[in-house]
Design goal:
The structure is a homodimer.
Chain A (H helix, E strand, L loop, with lengths): L16 E5 H15 L5 E2 L9 H9 L5 E3 L2 H9 L5 E3 L6 H13 L4 E4 L2 H14 L5 E6 L14 H9 L4 E7 L11 H24 L6 E4 L5 H5 L6 E2 L9 H7 L7 E10 L5 E4 L14 E2 L5 E5 L5 E5 L11 E5 L3 H5 L4 E6 L2 E7 L8
Parallel strand pairs in A: 1-16, 2-9, 3-4, 4-5, 5-6, 6-7, 7-8, 8-9
Antiparallel strand pairs in A: 1-10, 10-11, 10-15, 11-14, 12-15, 13-14, 16-17
Helix pairs in contact in A: 3-4, 4-5
């Protein structure tokens, strides 16, 4: 039976497999906290990247205050695994999901969630009232700081705050504003400029709410591309970077090489193709996502990867390269880390080629 | 606890969820077998679409002869669930994978696999010899009929057949040639013409091998876009359609509406976005793939879907549509069915809105 174990060599893994270089990952973690903790903000890493309570605990040990998840079903898994200081960064909408939130909150009282509509806030409050739970759940108003995906416009925040104040089972503790549209702005200066402009919207909204008497303790925002700017913008109390731990080729194009590519997909050459400078590997759309471009062969700048269906991809190369025999193994750097991790069931984490840890991707597929 | 059950109404499902309209699915299955069985070919559906032994058994009951899988790890799951007449359509390469093949073959002797290199054939043979298993495994030579992904060129088939004949534990039973590059050719006439030209390569290779004394019983090929042409091409004995059971918007553009969209992803409007004719739903890159374009809202030709990250998407519409309130539910037709199914853990199969079956996507993530 195929049953990889810590102590096995990387070479013994079947492919495709998702592997993590522990030295590089630990360096990324150390760099992030070295950068952010001295600013005094809370670092609440977004766990939508790693999808793993094991990795969440490593981040908490390094200085993180809890974590973020995108979806309620991710929070269920994290809490059950002992990571219960969790902010759900997407709106919880619909009777089934609200019922799940109530059940989760019954057991885990640290849960925080966001709201961006009166309907949404009222529904959560009604379900909590009906549940007999007496404590209010902590909520943050989600503010649209330019991404136009979720969040109330800054000028609508006050009305929503006043509405929340009428609800017995919701306690407003802060605001969230995610500038997702700025994470991949190329060029550090331009990204900083746009980020700080976006953060003005968020902190001004927080100030306005405070002036109206609301107790806004948390102002949370930021990703890997902007966390360092957010953390030094007055009024921001918390940042949510996620991808820094593994990185991807799309992020590197924007933010450079401060963080290393610590995660790759290892693959095998399974066939010679009809063209002379191409072979076929066993990793396709089911192993590497394409929404942000194609994956890149690691340490092989003259070799390109092209997906060829769900289970295959081409490696193509220029004249200076000899080629790849059948059975050769290559590592690929994902173009977009979060959805790539979502395709895999396990991390095989190694140090210098020897597997140390096998972590399940515990919240993989938790889209609800 | 969230625990959907047969008998529940579709409305009670949390979102995003993957749902199947059983009436439409059964009609698709009936149409396929009505089209193909009278031609006399075997129908060996490609189970990389459904990823479910439950659905494989439904197809076998309808007339299928076993099934195909792309990867060895899918075959392991199918065999353990009682679906053991399986052809693995990708080359099995690398020591770990070959060892898994040997262990599978030890228990399930009907397994067939493909080879396209002497190295690959020799490695499988060596592992079988060393295992002490006496029976030979049935293999097919994979022929490149124009896709240039895997497969030996037609003119290389004879040399490979002669090599296989020297190997004690491999029994050559046929040839495979997948014309994947033709599945989505638009226009029935053009697709038929290119398909028949491609099939000439395959059947001529089979004839050549027979003339050289090889016993070529199986000539297997074809997908949803070409199966009807393959099935009526002299010399083809088996076809491998998969997507017909659910269809997707990309296939519809090529092959038309003979098969219906029986699978959709149901999603919820969770936020108003900043623009007037757009709302945000809770389905993004983690629920719907984008490699073949974006998903389409079902029965809403004037509404478009745009992914907005891993967990969100926009619905946008023209002037004639009133809009969508928060909490509204919409169904989306995937653009590419196989990798979309791979994102989900369960099928919720309903008839007229009442759930009848909940099938696990048992080979989801089986990329090895």
């Amino acid at each position: 039976m195929y049953d990889p174990k810590p102590g096995d060599r990387l070479d013994s893994l079947d492919t495709p497999s998702m592997i993590v270089d522990l030295d590089l990952m630990e360096e990324n973690i150390a760099k992030l906290f070295h950068l952010l903790l001295p600013t005094g903000v809370n670092v609440r890493p977004h766990l939508k990247t790693t999808k793993s309570p094991d990795l969440a605990k490593i981040l908490i040990a390094a200085g993180a205050k809890g974590g973020c998840v995108a979806k309620l079903s991710e929070a269920e898994v994290m809490c059950a695994a002992g990571v219960d200081d969790i902010l759900i960064t997407c709106e919880v909408v619909g009777p089934a999901k609200v019922a799940r939130l109530v059940e989760l909150f019954r057991k885990y009282r640290k849960i925080q969630t966001v709201v961006d509509s009166q309907e949404g806030a009222t529904a959560i409050n009604g379900a909590l009232e009906a549940s007999g739970i007496e404590a209010p759940i902590q909520v943050l108003i989600d503010i649209d700081v330019g991404l136009h995906r979720t969040g109330v416009a800054p000028e609508g925040a006050l009305a929503l705050a006043k509405h929340i104040a009428t609800l017995s089972h919701l306690k407003l503790i802060g605001v969230q504003g995610y500038e997702g549209h700025l994470q991949h702005v190329h060029g550090r200066e331009q990204r900083e400029k746009e980020c700080r402009a976006s953060m003005v919207l968020l902190s001004a909204t927080a100030t306005l709410l405070r002036e109206e008497g609301f107790n806004i303790e948390v102002v949370t925002t930021g990703g890997t591309g902007t966390a360092e700017f957010c953390a030094t913008t007055p009024g921001i109390t918390e940042v949510q970077p996620g991808s820094f731990i593994f990185m991807d080729s799309d992020y590197r194009k924007a933010v450079g090489t401060y963080f290393s590519h610590s995660l790759t997909i290892i693959s095998t050459v399974i066939s010679k193709s009809a063209t002379e400078r191409t072979v076929t590997i066993d990793a396709g759309l089911k192993s590497l996502t394409t929404d942000s471009g194609f994956a890149e062969p690691k340490d092989m700048p003259d070799v390109t990867y092209t997906p060829m269906g769900d289970e295959h991809g081409w490696l193509s190369w220029g004249e200076d390269i000899e080629g790849f025999p059948i059975g050769a193994r290559v590592e690929l750097i994902p173009s977009h880390i979060d959805p790539t991790v979502n395709l895999h069931d396990f991390y095989y984490a190694h140090r210098k080629g020897v597997i140390e840890e096998i972590w399940p991707v515990a919240t993989r597929g938790k889209v609800q």
